[in-house]
Amino acid sequence: MNCLDLMWDAVLVNGHVGGGRKVDTGLNVELSPSHRAATGTEEAMLQESSTDEKKMERGSEVRVQDSTEQKLYKIANELLLTERAYVARLHLLDQVFCARLTEEAGKGLFPVDVVRTIFSNISSIHTFHCQFLLPDLETHMGQWSVSPRLGDVMQQHAPFLRMYAEYVMSFDQAMELLRIWTERSAPFRNVIQDIQSQEVCGSLTLQHHMLEPVQRLPRYEMLLRDYLKRLPNDDSDHSHAEKSLQDISMAATHSNSAIRQSENLKKMLEIYEMLGEEDVMNPSNEFIREGHILMLAARNSAMERHLFLFNNMLLCCAPRFSLAGHRFTVRARIDVEGMTVQRTTNEHHYHTFQVSGKERTLERTLDLQASSEQDKEDWIKAFQDTIDVFLQKNETFVSASKEVEVSMEELGRRAPRWIRDNEVTMCMKCSEPFNALTRWRHHCRACGCVVCWRCSDNKVTLEYDGNKVNKVCLDCHAALTLRANREERGEGMEGGHSRGSTPHLPISIPTLSPGCEGLV
């Protein structure tokens, strides 16, 4: 019999139970001295065990507390370290790239406005982070052992992060201008290449560095969410962290679409480095899928190929040897417009399908073999989805661009009907696709068409607006300029029409739903 059994026997024999109550057992038995000693020893052991458990619980609480504080410090320190690196990147963009290009532009080698448009408000962003946010983060982290707080400093500066909207909104146009002037101007290109060759650039292009500001706000948001998740609810810094997260999330919401565009652009840069194809870098291109595949040729021979599928074209490439890594040569370029895809059967090859479409003006058919049946189905789905999206956008464009006759007498003398921005997906003059956030849409003030910034870069005076100068599309600019010149010479339009006659100019005017007239 062990000590616990003896203790329980003693309780029963003496008639006592827990709580001090006594049970009449009819027996009155005294425990022997040896039994009493054993009972005392067991009680001491139980008390000691209970004390040890309490110590272990307190130790566990201390370890949990230490672990939480360490994680909070780690998050705050990561924010500081990444902020230092980010400020260095901003310095490179503002004080090196922008400054050098501005200096060369001052010599008349290329327009200063081009440099200003490309770098947008990068100087203001650099000043804010370098002179305000980073120094305050340094100060707070230096006092972390006394006052471990991150939310208050971020709340103080979060409202100023709204300045990123301007940079993000102009990012797409900046990339396009950068591409155009790199091709057009040797001095412009030489400055960029000279800086990119320096160690400070880390073997990255200017485009890669310019992505950093677009990606910075989501980084703040991610770190603050992690910080709040680990911060106790009763901590005095909790409300500050919540408010700063709200402000940063609001600023980041406007750039989420641009983030997707920047990720797409980063992929485009990688593809450009593999192909060397300039038109891959067109901001309207969207990467869909890539992968290794076999192309079937005459006599059932198979050749290795690599496909790059975009929203508007397919590039079929052949691998070529290069010490710099994977490189490819474009062998076929098929437009998504008019493209078809279908499953095929081949007695010599499995998992085959066929892609047909136009390469320039010629019909081209590719007989392809995937690595597996699943790979084949994935490719077919990617092709079909891309074709469907293209057709849907094109139908929207066509329905919005129905031809109507516009009286030359009314053009510029009467306010046009405008189409809603979200009813068109591409420029109604050059068919350049619009992106969800970063592609500017403009209305021609003469005919009401929705056009891109390039097609709206013309100005004339319009009678209906008090002869004020307004932006118009290329067609209207040409027509109104011609009319003005002929009227100055006293001539009628179209070889003798007087002002009272009504010749018509075939300009695409969007068809509006009832009640949409006059929308701005």
From TrEMBL:
<keyword id="KW-0479">Metal-binding</keyword>
<keyword id="KW-0597">Phosphoprotein</keyword>
<feature type="region of interest" description="Disordered">
    <location>
        <begin position="487"/>
        <end position="520"/>
    </location>
</feature>
<dbReference type="GO" id="GO:0007010">
    <property type="term" value="P:cytoskeleton organization"/>
</dbReference>
<dbReference type="GO" id="GO:0046847">
    <property type="term" value="P:filopodium assembly"/>
</dbReference>
<dbReference type="Pfam" id="PF01363">
    <property type="entry name" value="FYVE"/>
</dbReference>
<dbReference type="InterPro" id="IPR051092">
    <property type="entry name" value="FYVE_RhoGEF_PH"/>
</dbReference>
<feature type="region of interest" description="Disordered">
    <location>
        <begin position="38"/>
        <end position="60"/>
    </location>
</feature>
<dbReference type="InterPro" id="IPR035899">
    <property type="entry name" value="DBL_dom_sf"/>
</dbReference>
<feature type="domain" description="FYVE-type">
    <location>
        <begin position="421"/>
        <end position="481"/>
    </location>
</feature>
<feature type="compositionally biased region" description="Basic and acidic residues">
    <location>
        <begin position="51"/>
        <end position="60"/>
    </location>
</feature>
<keyword id="KW-0206">Cytoskeleton</keyword>
<dbReference type="InterPro" id="IPR013083">
    <property type="entry name" value="Znf_RING/FYVE/PHD"/>
</dbReference>
<feature type="domain" description="PH">
    <location>
        <begin position="286"/>
        <end position="388"/>
    </location>
</feature>
<keyword id="KW-0344">Guanine-nucleotide releasing factor</keyword>
<protein>
    <submittedName>
        <fullName>FYVE, RhoGEF and PH domain-containing protein 4-like</fullName>
    </submittedName>
</protein>
<dbReference type="GO" id="GO:0005856">
    <property type="term" value="C:cytoskeleton"/>
</dbReference>
<feature type="domain" description="DH">
    <location>
        <begin position="71"/>
        <end position="258"/>
    </location>
</feature>
<dbReference type="Pfam" id="PF00621">
    <property type="entry name" value="RhoGEF"/>
</dbReference>
<dbReference type="Pfam" id="PF22697">
    <property type="entry name" value="SOS1_NGEF_PH"/>
</dbReference>
<dbReference type="InterPro" id="IPR017455">
    <property type="entry name" value="Znf_FYVE-rel"/>
</dbReference>
<keyword id="KW-0863">Zinc-finger</keyword>
<keyword id="KW-0862">Zinc</keyword>
<dbReference type="InterPro" id="IPR000219">
    <property type="entry name" value="DH_dom"/>
</dbReference>
<dbReference type="GO" id="GO:0008270">
    <property type="term" value="F:zinc ion binding"/>
</dbReference>
<feature type="compositionally biased region" description="Basic and acidic residues">
    <location>
        <begin position="487"/>
        <end position="497"/>
    </location>
</feature>
<dbReference type="InterPro" id="IPR055251">
    <property type="entry name" value="SOS1_NGEF_PH"/>
</dbReference>
<dbReference type="InterPro" id="IPR011993">
    <property type="entry name" value="PH-like_dom_sf"/>
</dbReference>
<dbReference type="InterPro" id="IPR000306">
    <property type="entry name" value="Znf_FYVE"/>
</dbReference>
<keyword id="KW-0963">Cytoplasm</keyword>
<keyword id="KW-0677">Repeat</keyword>
<dbReference type="InterPro" id="IPR001849">
    <property type="entry name" value="PH_domain"/>
</dbReference>
<dbReference type="GO" id="GO:0005085">
    <property type="term" value="F:guanyl-nucleotide exchange factor activity"/>
</dbReference>
<dbReference type="GO" id="GO:0005737">
    <property type="term" value="C:cytoplasm"/>
</dbReference>
<dbReference type="InterPro" id="IPR011011">
    <property type="entry name" value="Znf_FYVE_PHD"/>
</dbReference>
